[in-house]
């Protein structure tokens, strides 16, 4: 598959991923990006927060299978297009999640991995460092290839300030209490973020 | 802790200071880590000046949260108050070490901890801080080495076995991680968390049979535990793939049927996440 010409993030997908990593700033965090390829651009339209403890085989498998079922019923073109992660040490190396990333890339050739660079958050910049799959290798994604409505960055900052990250539910939380929904369908209900359109 | 108990307290704490104090106590007892909430409520409570005897505990709690979040004003204030009241306390001495850590002054922090250890070599907290410092500066292999040395002396400290297990998971040494969790099971055979993590590790190293046993035990101890049930279902699937003939026997068919039935029942009440779960469960029938 040809290298991707860019990655476009839906406002809520970006905000949800950032809030998830902010909620567990002293743990390793992992989540999925769902989306589809639109020509050469990868559109990330939804985020599924997974873990804030270790990510081991069985639960990771179940979480991915559930996410795939969700994709099928939400929109036929939707699939798992990447993952995001964060480490308590702040390292943006993809090594800890490389095995998982390789698995995702086996199913979606243009997969990408996004590591949180928390130093970018205070300046309201795009806070993930990307690695994209190009011809069976992981290559750094230039920041010029990422498109996100600029309003989203300031709204995400506001949400962090309002401590809205406390409301994010991930798959770990769901496993501990089934009533908590990893789909987070009401996380942004009534929030200004809902009205911002994707680029 | 009952499901929802903590979340209810978080909501209540917004409107009443008694509830806020209760929330902070609850977080201490159950070791819930959410420093932003501690700082938010703790700061208000300290300002109210009506804490009485609780003041010192709350000051310590706020100090820890502030040190972690880089909220220097509160960190310094709490430490000043605590030092004033307990000038010769070892517990406050450790907090001074943590203050240095939060300023990334590793040398000074190490000095403080070493000083504590020179007069009180059995001070496990100081040992643990020294280990944590390796971890914070990203030196995982040094941290692992330091923990192993620590465990030679304090071999029944399951908190440290846990830390070591998590570090091994982080670097991908799952066999070694499994060994650490075995130690933890010996110390506390009924801990759901330990049993479940051990089961997940066994699965990850390919020992599906043993993994199934531990997931089964977890599902026996807590019938509707989602992690245990999903784990059991995944193990059954993996084993069925490996040995088709054996898994066709009635016993194993029954086990998978029971597991899936329980999950189906559980997910009926779970709203939006029930839909993908129902579809997946339909696919998992052997």
Short description:
The complex is a heterodimer of chains A (199) and B (286). Chain A is an alpha/beta fold and 199 residues long. Chain A has a single domain, classed as Cytidine Deaminase, domain 2, CATH 3.40.140.
Q: What is the count of helical runs of chain A? A: 5
Uncertain residue ranges of chain B? none
Q: Specify the biggest β-sheet of chain B.
A: none
The chain-level structural class of chain A is: alpha/beta
Shape of chain A: globular
CATH architecture assignment of chain A: 3-Layer(aba) Sandwich
Question: Helix coverage percent of residues of chain B?
Answer: over 70%
> Rg of chain B from C-alpha positions?
24 Å
Q: Largest inter-chain interface?
A: A-B, 32 and 42 residues
Which topology of chain A does CATH recognise? Cytidine Deaminase, domain 2
Chain-averaged pLDDT of chain A: 91
Q: What count of structural domains of chain A?
A: 1
Number of strands of chain B: 0
H/E series of chain A:
EHEEHEHEEEEHH
- What fraction of residues of chain A sit in β-strands? 25-35%
How is the main sheet of chain A built? 8 strands, mixed
Q: Give the overall form of chain B.
A: globular
Kindly provide the radius of gyration of chain A, computed on alpha-carbon positions and rounded to a whole number of angstroms: 15 Å
Oligomer description? heterodimer
């Amino acid at each position: 598959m040809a290298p991707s010409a860019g990655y476009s993030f839906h406002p809520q997908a970006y905000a949800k991923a950032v809030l998830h990593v902010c909620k567990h700033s002293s743990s390793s965090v992992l989540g999925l990006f769902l989306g589809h390829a639109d020509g050469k651009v990868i559109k990330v339209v939804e985020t599924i927060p997974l873990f804030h403890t270790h990510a081991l085989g069985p639960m990771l498998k179940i979480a991915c299978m559930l996410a795939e079922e969700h994709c099928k019923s939400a929109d036929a073109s939707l699939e798992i297009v990447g993952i995001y992660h964060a480490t308590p040490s702040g390292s943006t190396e993809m090594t800890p999640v490389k095995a998982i990333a390789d698995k995702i890339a086996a199913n979606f050739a243009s997969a990408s991995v996004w590591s949180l660079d928390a130093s970018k958050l205070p300046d309201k910049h795009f806070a993930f460092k990307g690695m994209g799959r190009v011809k069976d290798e992981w290559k750094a994604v230039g920041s010029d290839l990422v498109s996100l409505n600029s309003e989203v960055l300031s709204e995400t900052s506001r949400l962090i300030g309002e401590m809205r990250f406390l409301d994010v539910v991930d798959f770990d939380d769901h496993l501990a209490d089934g009533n908590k929904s990893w789909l987070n369908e009401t996380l942004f209900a009534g929030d200004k973020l809902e009205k911002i359109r994707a680029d | 802790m009952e499901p929802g108990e903590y979340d209810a307290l978080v909501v209540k704490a917004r409107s009443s200071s008694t509830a806020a104090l209760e929330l902070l106590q609850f977080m201490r007892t159950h070791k819930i880590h959410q420093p932003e909430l501690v700082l938010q409520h703790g700061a208000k409570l300290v300002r109210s000046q009506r804490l009485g005897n609780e003041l010192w505990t709350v000051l310590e709690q706020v100090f820890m949260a502030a040190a972690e979040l880089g909220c220097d004003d509160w960190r310094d204030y709490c430490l000043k108050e605590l030092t004033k009241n307990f000038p010769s306390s070892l517990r406050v001495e450790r907090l001074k070490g943590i203050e240095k850590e939060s300023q990334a002054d590793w040398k000074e922090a190490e000095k403080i901890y070493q000083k504590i250890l020179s007069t009180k070599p059995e001070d496990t907290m100081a040992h643990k801080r020294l280990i944590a410092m390796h971890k914070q500066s990203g030196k995982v292999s040094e941290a692992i080495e330091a923990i192993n040395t620590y465990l030679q002396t304090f071999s029944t400290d399951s908190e440290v076995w846990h830390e070591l297990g998590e570090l091994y998971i982080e670097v991908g040494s799952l066999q070694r991680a499994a060994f650490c969790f075995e130690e933890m099971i010996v110390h506390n055979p009924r801990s759901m968390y330990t049993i479940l993590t051990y089961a997940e590790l066994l699965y990850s190293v390919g020992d599906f049979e043993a993994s199934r046993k531990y997931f089964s035990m977890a599902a026996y101890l807590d019938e509707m535990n989602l992690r245990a049930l999903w784990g059991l279902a995944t193990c059954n699937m993996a084993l069925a793939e490996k040995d088709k003939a054996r898994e066709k026997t009635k016993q194993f068919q029954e086990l998978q049927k029971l597991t899936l039935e329980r999950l189906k029942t559980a997910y009926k009440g779970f709203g939006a996440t029930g839909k993908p779960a129902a579809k997946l469960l339909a696919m998992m029938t052997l």
